[in-house]
Amino acid sequence: MDLVTQQGLSRHSAPYAWRLIATALSFALFGIGGVLLRVLIFPLLALLPGNREARRTRARATVSGAFRAFVQFMFHSGVLTYEVEGVERLGRPGQMVIANHPSLVDVVVLIAFIRDANCVVKQSLWDNPCMRGPIRSAEYISNSGSLDMLDEAATALRDGQTLIVFPEGTRTTPGQSPEFHRGAAAIAVRGARIVTPVVISVSPTTLTKAEPWYSIPRRRFHVRLRVGEDIDPGQFRAQGPAPIASRKLNDYLHQHFMKELAKDEQSAT
């Protein structure tokens, strides 16, 4: 199993004041980078030869590379450390990557390690001045909650794309168990070749739904992504019509994540 890890240049966390400044710089860099991608990088990439699929692939690779550089900046500036277990099993054709969503940064880390991935993103980000350029150029899918969205996502999987979905739809509320909406399972039943769960933990918790960016922990936080064993959606399709199959798959995924997150909590104590 491949392990990508950056757990620190030293055993000691950077001073609180510096990490607060570095966190502010990280947010500024993320916003400025998104605008530069939209107004400078993607227009240049559009001039290169190739069909729509080639342009989309270049855009997704650019977003992935930019996110990876951003994660490295956060690591080297002392904001975070990270590890990804099983990274070699991400990015396969028709693979649906399902992850929990404890923090604002986990989306960035996950996309950083999948060079050519589609992603279901919040509708509000499509009009965000910093994010709309990368999102539209990469042809990510808007989480509108409509049947058209489900069909679009399933079609992407059937076409051999890798698709990242966060079944919670938003970040987990601190202190509460994640609640999975059935839409992710419905997409998997309709189009996925394989479903791969990725359990994400952030310790200490930070950048959650209830916290502003400046509410940083007393020490730098550690992001851990664990790529789980593949799940065959065919075994659930065989259990009945699509609504029944998606409900059973959703229940299975929810129980899987609850069990794995409990393991993370025990290991952290």
From TrEMBL:
Residues forming the Phospholipid/glycerol acyltransferase domain are 95-203
Keyword DNA-binding on entry: no
What InterPro entries does the annotation carry?
Answer: Plipid/glycerol_acylTrfase (IPR002123)
Alphabetical UniProt keywords = Acyltransferase, Membrane, Transferase, Transmembrane, Transmembrane helix
Segments traversing the membrane: 20-48
* Any one Gene Ontology BP term: phosphatidic acid biosynthetic process
Example of a GO MF term: 1-acylglycerol-3-phosphate O-acyltransferase activity
* Official protein name in the record: Acyltransferase
